[in-house]
Specification:
about 500 residues; alpha/beta; seven-stranded parallel beta sheet; elongated
Length: about 500
Amino acid sequence: MIVVESNEMQNLERATARSGMSLATLMEQAGAAVAELAAKIITEKKIRKVAVLCGKGNNGGDGFVIARFLSLMTDVTVILANEYPATDLGKMNFNIIPDKVNIYSVYDNINETAETIENAEMIIDAIYGIGFKDVLDPGSVQVIDLANRNRNAVKIAVDTPSGIICNTGEIPGDCFHADYTVSFTALKPLHVLYPSIDYCGTVSVAKIGIPQELVDMCTYAMRTTDEYITKHPMHKKQKSAHKGTNGTLLSICGSYGMAGAAILSGGAALRSGVGILKSAVPESIYPIVANKLTEAVFLPMKESSDGLISIDNFDRLQSEILGKCSAVLIGCGLGTSSNMTELVSAIISTTTKPLVLDADGINSIVPNIDVLRQSMAPIILTPHPGEMARLVGTDIITVQKNRYHTAKNFASEYNVTVILKGANTIIAFPDGNAYVNMNGNNGMAKGGSGDLLAGMAASFLAQGMSADDAAIDAVYYHGLAGDECAKHLTPRTMLPSDMLEEMKHIF
């Protein structure tokens, strides 16, 4: 599924009008799509009172259509949140609202407005749409505050919860808190980005009559990973496959006190199908890791005084990389120091084998970030927002406000693939394309989950996948493992080690 920014969505609507379908018809079908979802919920929950909050623009026009449809089955009241309709389409649909629908204005009928919203069993937000760019007007703030205080009502947003900026997901002030959001034609960035995703609830996409050929030709911001996985299923292994043909991964991970990171990433690599895992770990944690990863081949490494892999191991590691190794994983629990910066930079600048940089592998190159430009190998970086902030020299808040553009710009500038982790992980490629992952859950927000992801991505690289395929497949199946795990254990109780066990089944 594609994710389309507001200006391109408006272009699609204009192109549809030029092809012969009127904007009035699009509005009618948009209203009908939301009314269909609302009607289903009304029937299931036996809802008797619905309040439709309408703005003065075309989003309000959608609301008038919704009110007209729902008035056939229940008690409906329209609340004018700011002014009377100001667009031709809005006026047209306002004028044909049935007489049995009550209409109140927040400015003219504040008591009736407040009482209606407080007693509503369903509240539909049709105040602002994807064109919202500033802050809410006072009337809308008052209406939305009343709506959010009603904790018992089912809340549905039309295209976007009012108060959210479409293309960034930013919330300048107040916003409507939706249980459901019905997006028209395609997803918009606000439906997949932080912080807006917390206020969209369950998002669905309704087709309202825009021709599919126009949608296929439009300029999109991102695609979703599930669409890619459907079109590019994972290749089945040949019957004649053996451990040598299934790839060899060199994993340079772990430090004193961080053995778990090497165990989780190595376990995920093995579960994802790599033929041989060579695990380079500090000598001090070798017995711990070896006790858990019985299938791995181990390369115990000399340590520096702080328990990290020493730069003195470079020649040995380079020999392994130049040998039968088909991909490299660096960073899970690795630790940071000037010694580590030198070691990681040396490996990046000399290897031609594809590699994954995670955690302290990423932190280690922050002082020497231009080493990425020197690399002759495909590179996947798997930063969380804090690591991404260090890479670009900013703070976490700024990264989270601009997840899509931050990942996309960095990937293009440094010719790498970026997996920016978090709710709805962003995957950005050097060519400017980007994907967003829609599965996964908040039970995965625990230390160690990222180690699994890094191990999966590196395993897929070692098996011969391109960086693009490896990144998308790793993120998608990582999220799937989390979702399947949550079904059995609940998000609160599940652990990354449980997800590792779930990987036995997801492929």
